[in-house]
Write a structure and sequence with these properties.
Blueprint: E1 3-8, H1 13-24, E2 28-33, H2 41-51, H3 69-74, H4 77-86, E3 95-98, E4 101-104
Parallel strand pairs: 1-2
Antiparallel strand pairs: 1-3, 3-4
């Protein structure tokens, strides 16, 4: 049976929609509420590595109280990762992992690439 893990924010409509899509396919789903402090530096680095992406790929730009584009340009990769770990609301979502890979599911249809 196919299994999936989603790094999920219940307050995000796209995240909820991806949960629904996965469940409709009958796939066993592990839900990780990453805003609850479950996103560690190692986990985030592993996800980025599996996606073959850099921290900028997951950084949300729509939280000006936490994120300043000019400041971010001066940060190293590790500093950006730590910024997201300390402020998980800055992590774009939903992120889904299956045995076929890891995807940031924006748009939500990207989840089909790994199901």
């Amino acid at each position: 049976m196919t299994r999936a893990t989603i790094y999920h924010n219940q307050n995000c409509s796209k995240s909820r929609a991806v949960v629904e899509l996965i469940r409709e396919k009958g796939i066993e789903l592990e839900i990780i509420e990453y805003l609850d402090g479950n996103m560690t530096e190692d986990v985030l680095k592993n996800l980025l590595n599996e996606m073959n992406e850099f921290a900028d790929y997951l950084l949300r730009l729509d939280h000006p109280e936490l994120y300043n584009e000019d400041l971010a340009k001066s940060l190293t990769e590790n500093e950006k990762i730590m910024l997201m770990v300390k402020n998980p609301i800055l992590i774009n979502r939903p992120i889904v992992r299956t045995q076929k890979g890891v995807r940031l599911c924006r748009p939500i249809e990207k989840v089909y690439e790994i199901l």
